[in-house]
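Example protein was shown:

_____
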Amino acid sequence: MPELGPREHEIGKKIGEGVERFVYEIPDKDSDNVLAKDKAHFRETPEFKKGVFYMNKILSALFPEHIPKIHLAGASDEIGSVEVRQRIFNEEHVRNTELYDTADINSSELIDLDNKLVAFGKREGKEIERRLEEAGIHYIDTYNSLNFMKDDRNGNVYYVDTVPPWHAKKGGTNRLYFDENKLRQYAREHVDEPTQKRVDNYLTRLVALYDKDLANYHG
């Protein structure tokens, strides 16, 4: 998995904000990627962060029209926990973030735009959730409808939050958010052989990371 380098310590304009992270432009006018930075109160183990990387590599290979490519996931003392992902271009979402940061929360422009984006997410998110469930994915955050975004360039609708691979808590319930056998079967039936081999390889690494995470931190 790629490691954090100097470029990942550069943060540009904030273009999005969710419950768990901020999203920033990468200071390069030609960049097709964004940097997502976790908020301070979210702490993740190294195994979980690597698991996020492989989980989303798998899903972007199987569903390139719905899951953005992930290029890096890691952490450093200087910047915290970050991901570099494919940018989905949607001017209304950028404007929505700007209004939240600068406008009166009761402004009519903000309320109208927010309602429009939420309604879109609720409508379009159901189909993406159904397709992922078919492949063996047990959890995506459909509660936040702003996680679903239409790319202005190609018209595809993307789930722009990362998909977590598992939930593990010391003394609590440990649960995988994916079905390994279903994912392998889905790959055999829906993608070409080179992509299938990549998916199989990523899945093997993902399961090993889950076992290590439980043994080291949650056993």
